[in-house]
């Protein structure tokens, strides 16, 4: 998936992210942030993830343990599997979006992710949402700003930090919406909802 710089700026603007001085241009012509802009983007990315995490934890706590196996239909992730999928993204894809190391907790390969997500009790989900989030924050904090500039090989392509962070937050927001729908279908009101 490739975005042009106009699309990236429009998406960032719609998310309320101000992108300062996009000084460097990547060889492909995509707008790539300088070190200062990349540091600001990482800061905003982490602020959004903090908000998402609080909502994921609130929903994880609001679902009774017996509802963790509920799924809206065959072949669709259960409540617990969605929460474990979010945790797996904290361990793997969210750090990778900023060029940080993925956790060895989940080995490479679809089977490893499926096995991890299948262990989806309420206790497992709460444990891994917290531990995966802490791992991701530690990894992102350790990335040098200078390494966030230009294009990076990631997700089978080459992207700027702007592209990879928007893809990751978009995906996590999608899973939050999925869990809100699951909650409402089970008569559970999201705790932050008035």
Structural class: mainly alpha
Uncertain stretches: 1-29
Q: Provide the β-strand percentage band.
A: 5-15%
Q: What is the residue-averaged pLDDT? A: 85
Would you write up a description of this structure?
This protein has 194 residues and is mostly helical. It has one domain: Up-down Bundle (Four Helix Bundle (Hemerythrin (Met), subunit A)). It is built from seven helices and four strands, in the order αββαααααββα. It has helices spanning 5-14, 35-62, 79-91, 93-96, 110-118, 122-142, 161-185; strands at 24-25, 31-32, 152-154, 157-159. The protein has a two-stranded antiparallel ribbon with strand order 1-2. A two-stranded antiparallel ribbon has the order 3-4. A hairpin with a 2-residue loop joins β3 and β4 (157-159). α2 runs antiparallel to α6 (122-142) and α3 crosses α5. The model is unreliable at 1-29 (pLDDT under 50).
Summary of the model, kept short:
By secondary structure, this protein is mainly α. Helices cover 57% and strands 5% of the residues. The protein has helices spanning 5-14, 35-62, 79-91, 93-96, 110-118, 122-142, 161-185, and strands at residues 24-25, 31-32, 152-154, 157-159.
Task: Indicate the topology.
Blueprint: H1 5-14, E1 24-25, E2 31-32, H2 35-62, H3 79-91, H4 93-96, H5 110-118, H6 122-142, E3 152-154, E4 157-159, H7 161-185
Helix pairs in contact: 2-6, 2-7, 3-5, 3-6, 3-7
List keywords for this structure.
two-stranded antiparallel sheet, Four Helix Bundle (Hemerythrin (Met), subunit A), 57% helix, single chain, mainly alpha, 194 residues, globular
